[in-house]
Design goal:
Elements: E1 3-6, E2 13-14, H1 16-29, H2 42-45, H3 49-57, H4 65-81, E3 88-89, H5 93-102, E4 106-110, H6 115-125, E5 133-135, H7 147-157, E6 164-168, H8 171-180, E7 184-187, E8 203-205, H9 211-218
Parallel strand pairs: 1-4, 1-6, 4-5, 6-7, 7-8
Antiparallel strand pairs: 2-3
Helix pairs in contact: 1-3, 1-4, 3-4, 7-8
Length: 220
Amino acid sequence: MKTVIFDLDGTLADTSGDLIAAANACFKGLGLGELLDPATDAGTALRGGRAMLTLGFSRVNGYGEAEIERQYPILLKAYGDNIDTHTTLYPGAMDAVETLKTRGYGVGICTNKPEGLAETLLQNLGIRDAFGAMTGADTLPVRKPNPDHLFETVRRLGGDPAKTCLIGDSITDRDTAKNANVPSVLVTFGPSGDDMAALKPEALLDRYADLPDLVDHLLS
């Protein structure tokens, strides 16, 4: 079976607002106020919790790696408590998923978000049942860009790794696909969309309505 594997944050959904709110909760707990701006720091938010903490602390003095590690579990707790306040699915994402399924593709999610948080978010958004498999950052001993993370997602779908396409929004997704020797499609509508062409994926995606035909072409 051919499979289409999606990244989650920045690909299926814009989660940046809730991620930044969680990081700002950490900074406010230290009396620093809100150090991140949802309007300008969304791209960093989609690179993960430690990236947000690193950026925020770079804007003040006196905080290093030790404080980043101390705040990281606090950030995860704050995020888990308010995981879908601002998060929205990208337009047409789920229509594209359903069209792919009607064409016989297996669809799954391979994300570097912790599995428990990913499960909660997908359930809260009401879309978990649309995906035949989901693996997170801590599902396996390895994670993206290690290709085994992608391969395990495909295996759980009963798919063929050689007939797989990865949809993502970052250099991590591009490198995962490259390491797995499969094509990647990078979305241009996320916070870092203008940077995707430079990563030279097999295709760029401007709108989800184009995805089913694009995948047909890549996996023909």
